[in-house]
Specification:
The structure holds two protein chains of two kinds. Chain A is 39% helix and 28% strand. By secondary structure, chain A is an alpha/beta fold. Chain A has a domain of 165 residues: Rossmann fold (3-Layer(aba) Sandwich). In chain A, the strands form two sheets. Chain A has a six-stranded mixed beta sheet, with helices on both faces. In chain A, strand 4 and strand 5 form a beta hairpin. The longest helix of chain A is centred in the C-terminal third of the chain and has 16 residues. The termini of chain A are far apart. By secondary structure, chain B is mainly alpha-helical. Chain B has a single domain, classed as ABC transporter involved in vitamin B12 uptake, BtuC (Orthogonal Bundle). In chain B, the strands form two sheets. In chain B, strands 1-4 form a two-stranded antiparallel sheet. The interface between A and B is medium-sized, with 31 and 27 residues. Bound molecules: adenosine-5'-triphosphate and magnesium ion.
């Protein structure tokens, strides 16, 4: 399997705070990889560093073999890295349709854009009914669907998902995980950050456990699910 | 109601209309209707207030019946209020666009306006010096002057952002503000020096006296009263309406406009979508600056003489207008500009009849408005909270 995304000894700071302390991580083409860890472990920071919205102080992010560490976020996005940020970050005063159009910012053809919007509506029929509604007036679940749909509009090669199940009712959570698997089956590689580690490890092939900015464990997902320490720390098992 | 992030947008239900109808509704009927509503609303309220004043003080001076004077002057006050109001609205848009995207007040904008008025002068003066001014078709001449000033002022605004604001992004809010004030002084002195060196004078007279079609008043009949209106008033209003319609289309109907709105709402997420945020910010400065430039040259043609210092008062009044309407809000800039213009015209018309007052107090009233709004309603007339909920 070809390596699509590779982080090498990545260090990121917020001012004095050393948030990532040498992260090594790879995501292969076609995989679902999950990143689990306690609050503040650095999961979101890892995704933000990949996307270029926070700068790595040292280390490298390689995408498809190319060093993107110093690139601008919009250029990184254009290369094929999609990012559904933590907290959804829907544009509240744009309509559902406009939010999706923004997702396809670098797509020139109007026809392609409309086709992709149709594709998103197939995944999330709920959004189609709300096409003229302002993003800020959607429910939390609908916003999450829109956030994922918006990222798919660019047809990224790898999709970074930051806690897509946050704040959703259990039924919706299952739905979201099904969609994630479907997106993956349609050919998108996924790097998934989740509080809901149990479900994340069930859909993922491999998992990384992050603790205060360091990878403390990485293994096939089913091994992590079986690991006693992991179960205790992250899966709420006793 | 519309912040920059929403544009001067028609309500989203119009999305359900057939596309051609929707286009006409969103980009012509709705914005024009909005302007008419604001003009008529402000004019009606002010007329009522003026007559109320006349009822309270029927004879401010011996033999001067205030109500009669108001009736006689009403059409003139409204017309001049509209034309100055549109100038304020156009300048106010520059403040509001930049504020809407960066939450930063570009205090150098009054000098961007000034440069527009000086560029307008330079073009007309040069054409006049070449002796061909009279041969120009009026429409072509005005469009050329306005477009070139838009271009120069727009590029100037982009340059200022690049040099004086962008490096300060992330610094405390006061720092770019001080930088803006520095840029203002620099521009004033730069223009003054340039004009003083090249023309030996920085009182710059538009050669409008060579153009009878621009200076000869048009007599309009309103019932029994005749009002002489300067042709430049029509040009100002026509130019402003056209550019405002274009702005509305740009912000709400084009991809770039959608990008600006996205950046105004959430820069980081916009970048994640592949939008070049710095480019969008430059574009916002360009559009805002271009509006300042258009207003400057229209203003220059209207008043005839401009100086490097001409930006300050209209600038601060337009800023008042932007705050009055709700800064960051495109519709608010329009409403605030028209309201302030009409208030001023009415004060000009009425204050002269009061002993010891007179027109020179008009500006004090305008600035009292600013202070009162800042104290009692900082979010302005169309007051949505400026900090957007996430
Ligand atoms: N903008 C910021 N400024 C300063 N410190 C930050 C900032 N963002 C995150 N941090 C710090 O960096 C560390 C890692 O944060 P991060 O958001 O990556 O954690 P996380 O693993 O995503 O946590 P959660 O599960 O709560 O989302 C934390 O200690 C956090 O306080
Ligand atoms: Mg997080």
């Amino acid at each position: 399997m070809a390596t699509l995304l590779e982080l090498k000894n990545l260090h990121t700071y917020y001012g004095q705070i050393h948030a990532l302390k040498g992260i090594d991580l790879t995501v292969n083409e076609g995989e679902i990889v999950t990143l689990v860890g306690a609050n503040g472990a650095g999961k979101s920071t890892t995704l933000r560093t990949i996307s270029g919205i926070v700068r790595a102080r040292s280390g490298q992010v390689l995408f498809n073999g190319q060093d993107v560490t110093q690139m601008q976020p919009h250029d990184i996005a254009r290369m094929g890295i999609g990012h559904v940020p933590e907290g959804r970050r829907i544009f509240p005063q744009l309509t559902v349709h406009e939010n999706l159009e923004i997702g396809a910012w670098n797509v020139k053809s109007k026809k392609d854009i409309e086709e992709r919007i149709e594709h998103v509506f197939q995944l999330f029929p709920r959004l189609k009914e709300r096409i003229t509604q302002l993003g800020g007036t959607l429910s939390g679940g609908e916003q999450q669907m829109l956030a994922i749909g918006r990222a798919l509009m660019a047809m990224p090669r790898v999709l970074l998902l930051d806690e897509p199940s946050m704040g959703l009712a259990p039924v919706l959570v299952e739905g979201i995980f099904e969609i994630i698997q479907r997106i993956n089956e349609q050919g998108t590689t996924i790097l998934l950050v989740e509080q809901n580690a149990l479900m994340a490890l069930e859909v993922a092939q491999r998992g990384y456990v992050l603790q205060t900015g360091k990878v403390v464990l990485h293994a096939p997902a089913r091994d992590l699910l079986a690991d006693e320490a992991v179960r205790k720390a992250y899966l709420g098992a006793h | 109601m519309a912040s920059v992030s929403r544009g001067l947008a028609a309500p989203s239900w119009s999305l359900r209309l057939p596309p051609a109808v929707r286009w006409v509704y969103d980009y012509l009927l709705y914005p024009i209707g909005q302007m008419l509503v604001f003009i008529i609303g402000a004019a009606v309220v002010l007329t009522l207030l003026a007559y109320l004043l006349a009822a309270l003080v029927p004879e401010p001076r011996p033999n001067i019946i205030l109500a009669d004077q108001i009736s006689r002057q009403l059409p003139g006050m409204i017309i001049s209020g509209i034309s100055i109001g549109f100038v304020y609205a156009m300048i106010a848009l520059g403040y509001t666009l930049v504020y809407g995207v960066l939450k930063f007040i570009n205090f150098a904008h009054s000098e961007i306006f000034m440069v527009g008025s000086v560029v307008g002068f330079e073009i007309m003066r040069r054409i006049a010096d070449s002796g061909t001014l009279q041969q120009w078709n009026p429409v072509v001449l005005i469009v050329t002057v306005v477009l070139v000033s838009m271009l120069v002022s727009g590029l100037l605004a982009v340059l200022i952002e690049r040099i004086a604001y962008r490096p300060l992004r992330g610094a405390p809010r006061l720092v770019p503000l001080i930088s803006a004030i520095g840029i203002s002084f620099f521009l004033i002195d730069f223009v003054r020096a340039t004009e003083a060196i090249t023309r030996n004078d920085f009182n710059l007279r538009y050669p409008t006296d060579q153009l009878p079609w621009l200076t000869q008043s048009v007599a309009l009949q309103f019932g029994t009263t005749t009002v002489n209106v300067k042709p430049t008033s029509f040009i100002v209003v026509g130019g402003a309406v056209l550019t405002l319609l274009a702005l509305n289309y740009f912000v709400n109907g084009t991809k770039l406009g959608r990008g600006i709105r996205a950046v105004a709402q959430d820069q980081t997420t916009a970048a994640l979508m592949g939008i070049n945020v710095n480019f969008m910010i430059s574009l916002t400065f360009f559009v805002g600056g271009a509006f300042g430039g258009a207003a400057g040259s229209l203003f220059g043609m209207n008043v005839g003489t401009v100086t490097p210092y001409v930006g300050f008062i209209p600038g601060i009044k337009a800023f008042t207008a932007a705050v009055l309407g709700g800064i960051g809000n495109i519709t608010g800039a329009l409403l605030g500009g028209l309201t302030l213009g009409l208030v001023e015209a009415f004060l000009n018309g009425v204050l002269v009849y009061f002993p010891a007052l007179g027109q020179r107090y008009t500006d004090i009233f305008a600035f009292s408005v600013l202070i009162l709004i800042l104290i009692f309603r900082p979010s302005g007339l169309l007051g949505e909270r400026v900090d957007e909920k996430v």
